[in-house]
Amino acid sequence: MSLTQELGLDIPFTDTRHETVLNVVHTANQLLSAGADLFREAGLTHAQFNVLFALKHKARPVTQTELGQRLVVTRASMTSVLDRLEAKELAARRKVPGNRRIHHVELTEAGRRLLDAMEPRYFALVHEALELLSDSECRTLIGLLERVREGARTAGQGDRE
Fold it and tell me: Rounded to an integer, what distance in angstroms lies between the CA atom of residue 110 and that of residue 60?
């Protein structure tokens, strides 16, 4: 179904790029909504799940700042998410020897167990949501979205100079 139909618009879009952005946003919102129940059952928000997932799938120690940059989260938001995860004993900030200002963020054993239990259900949900796309179509979509993110990173920079 077209976005025009889904949104109940009487007049179709006249700007293809605007329609594209709204399609991406609307699709992302629907995917977030589909996962909300799973996250809620585990007592997590989507942001908390993303942090735990990023911590589980890292190859080296990561700082709070690096984690925020990876997840495109403000410093204040990251602090808030980590405070809540620490209160639930799912993540921990550890001091870095020789640097009092930096902390590495780690997944606790309880956080790992929770994520290990959630991941199969999460991946099943993702596969169900994308079952109409072939692997090749998924790879094409990934490439297109990477290009969109690159454009978004540089958009408006010419106006600021």
Answer: 19
